[in-house]
Amino acid sequence: MIVSAAGKNIYPEEIEAALHLSPFILESVVLGKKKENKMGEEVHAIIVPDMEQMKRHFDCDIVSPEPEMIRRVIEQEVNTVNSSLADYKRLIRFEIRFNEFEKTTSRKIRRTLYR
Predict the structure, then answer these.
(1) pLDDT class for 25, splitting at 50, 70, 90?
(2) C-alpha 56: how far from its chain's center?
(3) What angle do CA 86, 89, 94 make, to 5 degrees?
(4) Which of 64, 73, 89, 109 pairs with 50 at a CA distance of 20 to 30 A?
(5) What domain range is 74 assigned to?
(6) Who wins on pLDDT, 97 or 61?
(7) What number of CA atoms fall less than 13 Å from residue 77's CA on the CB side?
(8) Considering its fold, how many domains does the chain have in total?
(9) Are 9 and 1 contacting, i.e. CB atoms less than 8 angstroms apart?
(10) pTM of the model
């Protein structure tokens, strides 16, 4: 659970579920990052793009799309998700990761590795 500066509870799973509705997002982890010199946390995401969908979208056969193109598509998807969330739940930042997350034997993402 993430606690905002206003003391509101934010559940990462809710935001991750919204992100996963995008065909361009394979998986994500939503985390709270402490604000510098302030109380509370900001909402951040680490996102793994679905490269197969990206290749289809950009009509690339063998060559991968440019990283900047991928970033623009993911940013657009994040903006779409943010527009459907309450202000205090919105993603402040995101980063793109091209390798899938490390998982437990039950196929759950090891969140503690990405804090």
Answers:
(1) very high
(2) 21
(3) 130
(4) 89
(5) 2-114
(6) 97
(7) 29
(8) 1
(9) yes
(10) 0.90
**Which pair of tokens denotes residue 20?**
């996963």
What's the CATH number where 90 sits? 3.30.300.30
What average pLDDT does range 106-113 have in this prediction?
91
Task: Map the chain to HEC letters.
Answer: CEECCCCCEECHHHHHHHHCCCCCEEEEEEEEEECCCCCCEEEEEEEEECHHHHHHHCCCCCCCCCHHHHHHHHHHHHHHHHHCCCHHHCCCEEEECCCCCCECCCCCECHHHHC
What gap in Å lies between CA 12 and CA 103, rounded to an integer?
Answer: 17
pLDDT in tens, 28-69: 999 999 887 777 899 999 999 999 998 888 776 656 778 898
Long-range contacts of 104-113 (CB under 8 A, 24+ apart): 109/27, 109/29, 111/29, 111/31
